[in-house]
Amino acid sequence: MKLIIGILLTVFGLLITGGTLVGISEGESTIAQDFGPWLIIGFVPLIVGIGLNLSFMKNKRQYKRQLIENQMLKYAKKHNGSITAAELAMETSLNFKEAEKVLEDFAKQGIASRKISESGIFVYQFPMISDIEKSSAKGIYEI
Q1: How far, in whole angstroms, is CA 21 from its chain's centroid?
Q2: 93 φψ region: left (φ > 0), alpha (ψ -120 to 50), beta (else)
Q3: Which helix (H) or strand (E) segment is 124 a member of?
Q4: Is 47:13 a contact under the CB 8 Å cutoff?
Q5: Is pLDDT of 134 > 80?
Q6: Tens digits of per-residue pLDDT, 60-117?
Q7: What is the CA radius of gyration of the chain?
Q8: Tell me, what DSSP letter sits at residue 121?
């Protein structure tokens, strides 16, 4: 709904702006005559429409990232907290390079640790969902 309203406002604002510019260029009116009405009827809807469209696209990217993170963590949970970029790419809509970037971001944030296998493949370990981490947990007062 937000996207539809944003598109409609943007198109409306563009049409009003275009009509105003055509009227001014053909000498039917002057900038002084049309500026106030254009500002209210053309410019404001145009800016609001663009803002709604940008907001929609930002929310869509955030939702996609959350979905991918959820899929990744579920996969890692099934494999004792470990995942590779290739596995993440196969389980999600990401390509290999995007999967590597997502995993590297988690490693940089300290959420995952990066290890390297004997064959040179990076394996990302998520200790927070590893069964090893849970089994070795101690009470707060035991530490």
Answers
A1: 36
A2: alpha
A3: strand 122-125
A4: yes
A5: no
A6: 988 888 888 888 888 888 888 889 999 989 988 889 999 999 999 989 998 899 999 9
A7: 26
A8: -
Q: Give Cβ neighbours of residue 59 (< 8 Å, ≥ 6 apart).
A: none
CB 99 within 8 A of CB 86: yes
Looking at every residue in the chain, the average pLDDT score rounds to: 86
Residue that wins the pLDDT comparison between 143 and 114: 114
How far is Cα 128 from Cα 97, in angstroms, rounded to an integer? 25
Percent of the chain exceeding pLDDT 90 equals 34
d(CA 37, CA 113): 59
Question: Is the distance from CB of 133 to CB of 127 less than 8 angstroms?
Answer: yes
Q: Would you state the torsion angle of the CA atoms of residues 24, 29, 31, 35, taken in this order, to the nearest 10 degrees?
A: -110
Per-residue tokens: 86: 């290739």
114 CA to centre of own chain: 24
Task: Give CA–CA dist 97/119, Å, rounded.
Answer: 19
* Whole-number pLDDT of residue 135: 64
Contacts of 117 (CB under 8 A, 6+ apart): 123
Furthest CA-CA distance within the chain = 85
